[in-house]
Design brief:
Order of helices and strands: EHHEEEHEHH
Distance between the termini: 37 Å
Strand content: 15-25%
Largest sheet: 5 strands, mixed
Shape: globular
Helix content: 25-40%
Radius of gyration: 15 Å
Strand order of the largest sheet: 1-2-3-4-5
Number of helices: 5
Length: about 140
């Protein structure tokens, strides 16, 4: 799976700042988190990929979890002006590379697909869990 970046883009594995994180989520239509929640959550990142253009983060993705049994891929988003160039696919390829190189084969890797993002995630082997395991995802927003 190709993960080549377009010209003038670069990758960073640094965790985004709280301000950048909140701005990306808000601008891309993901549920925004408070500065307090972001300050508590971001340091628990196991692995992160940011794609930068002219020093600005334009696409991001993170992995959280316990590192062995359960992992959650989250925050996959790309700023509107940078979509359609394969940046989210590059982010996913990097995240999945980290998963394959750093976790046991028995690890459970989950994610939530917003909108039509499931088409991207299916390219990396993700499937709807309700069909395979006869279980469904549930969530609670505090």
């Amino acid at each position: 799976m190709s993960s080549a970046l377009p010209p003038n883009y670069s990758i960073s594995h640094a965790i985004p700042s709280i301000e950048t994180y909140i701005s990306l989520r808000t601008t891309t239509g993901l549920t925004p988190f408070s500065p307090e929640a972001s300050a508590k959550g971001l340091p628990n990142t196991l692995f992160c990929i940011q794609i930068l253009h002219a020093g600005q983060t334009v696409s991001v993705g993170r992995i959280t979890g316990d590192g062995g049994c359960f992992l959650l891929i989250s925050d996959i988003c790309t700023l509107p002006g940078h979509r359609g160039q394969g940046l989210a696919k590059t982010v996913m390829a990097g995240l999945m590379g980290w998963v394959r190189g750093n976790t046991p084969r028995t690890a459970y890797v989950g994610l939530w697909a917003d909108g039509r993002a499931d088409a991207l995630y299916r390219q990396f082997g993700f499937r709807d869990t309700v069909d395979e395991y006869d279980s469904k995802g549930m969530s609670l927003t505090m």
